[in-house]
């Protein structure tokens, strides 16, 4: 052994501490247990999340206007009974279901197609990727006034229709029950398709090129390759996007509130906007808390259902 090697080995041995070696029976570890490391996070989670959930459940059994000094009257399950008999509540759930189906389908199809195009030989692909993804990072509060101006009765969208000879189709888009919901869904699709595109693009990047080459050798065309090979390999990403889509639909608030104010006549009412209206504007904190508990139950149930579907798709 050379002198340099002996010096390195000697220095390494001299730096060893007794605590680093194997412990003997009955010898205490010099390092604290794992509980000490997770206590801060555990206290934060329990204190701010689970306590808030429990307090919301407690408030849902009260008739209270939200002011600390105001008296509150226990009403038991009356808020839940009123919620199940409330047509606006069920209308909001129906809007959430329709919203999820339309937006998820559109985002999945557009994002998948864009990802497939970006994986082909196309000029200025990095520029197109940025253009597609930019809406995802824009705050809805900054874009809502723009969309209100675009779809206003005297907005630019009606102006374009009139300019191309389709003036008969012009209408106040934000004032119609159906068209207002269509506008909300279009804004959401425009905003979140970039995220869908990025995830599908990453999933396609994991596909072995040899598989695609073998498909081309067997005479498979582009459409058949995408449908029979690429899409099945991206199915896990689609399920993950479905989970995010369900949770996002249940939590939808910013776009319908900022663009349509949940109107007209509750045409774009969602659970989030209804909770805000009931709690902040009408000061019915107990009833709003009951709707919040229902929203939590729906989110947990949807998450469990999507997780089960994901496991079944992985097994198949």
From TrEMBL:
Belongs to the binding-protein-dependent transport system permease family. Residues 1-29 are annotated as: Disordered. It comes from the Bacteria. The chain crosses the membrane at residues 34-53, 97-118, 130-151, 178-204, 225-250, 285-306. Residues 93-306 form the ABC transmembrane type-1 domain. This is Sugar ABC transporter permease. Residues 13-26 have a biased composition (Basic residues). The keyword Cell membrane applies. PROSITE patterns: ABC_TM1. PANTHER family: ABC TRANSPORTER PERMEASE PROTEIN (PTHR30193), DIACETYLCHITOBIOSE UPTAKE SYSTEM PERMEASE PROTEIN NGCF (PTHR30193:SF41). It is found in: Cell membrane. It is a multi-pass membrane protein. The lineage of its organism: Bacteria, Bacillati, Actinomycetota, Actinomycetes, Micrococcales. Keywords: Cell membrane, Membrane, Transmembrane, Transmembrane helix, Transport. Pfam families: BPD_transp_1.
């Amino acid at each position: 052994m050379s002198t340099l090697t002996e010096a390195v080995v000697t220095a390494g041995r001299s730096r060893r501490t007794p605590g680093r070696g194997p412990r003997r029976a009955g010898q205490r570890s010099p390092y604290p247990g794992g509980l000490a490391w997770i206590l801060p996070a555990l206290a934060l989670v329990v204190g701010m999340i689970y306590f808030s959930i429990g307090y919301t459940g407690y408030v849902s059994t009260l008739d209270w206007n939200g002011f600390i000094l105001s008296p509150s009257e226990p009403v038991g399950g009356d808020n839940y009974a009123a919620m199940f008999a409330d047509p606006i509540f069920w209308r909001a759930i129906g809007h959430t279901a329709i919203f999820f189906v339309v937006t998820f389908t559109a985002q999945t199809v557009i994002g998948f197609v864009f990802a497939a195009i970006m994986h082909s030989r196309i000029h200025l692909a990095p520029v197109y990727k940025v253009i597609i993804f930019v809406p995802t990072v824009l705050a809805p509060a900054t874009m809502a006034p723009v969309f209100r101006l675009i779809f206003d009765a005297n907005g630019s969208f009606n102006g374009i229709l009139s300019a191309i000879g389709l003036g008969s189709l012009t209408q106040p888009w934000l004032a119609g029950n159906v068209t207002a919901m269509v506008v909300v869904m279009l804004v959401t699709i425009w905003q979140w398709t970039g995220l869908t595109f990025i995830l599908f693009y990453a999933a396609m990047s994991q596909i072995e090129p040899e598989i695609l080459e073998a498909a081309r050798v067997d005479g498979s065309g582009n459409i058949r390759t995408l449908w029979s090979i690429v899409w099945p390999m991206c199915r896990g990403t689609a399920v993950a996007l479905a989970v995010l889509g369900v949770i996002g639909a249940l939590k939808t608030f910013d776009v319908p509130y900022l663009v349509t104010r949940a109107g007209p006549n509750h045409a774009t009412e969602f659970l989030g906007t209804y909770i805000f209206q009931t709690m902040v504007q009408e000061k019915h904190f107990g009833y709003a808390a009951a709707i919040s508990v229902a929203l939590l139950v729906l989110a947990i149930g949807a998450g469990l259902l999507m997780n089960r579907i994901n496991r079944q798709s992985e097994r198949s």
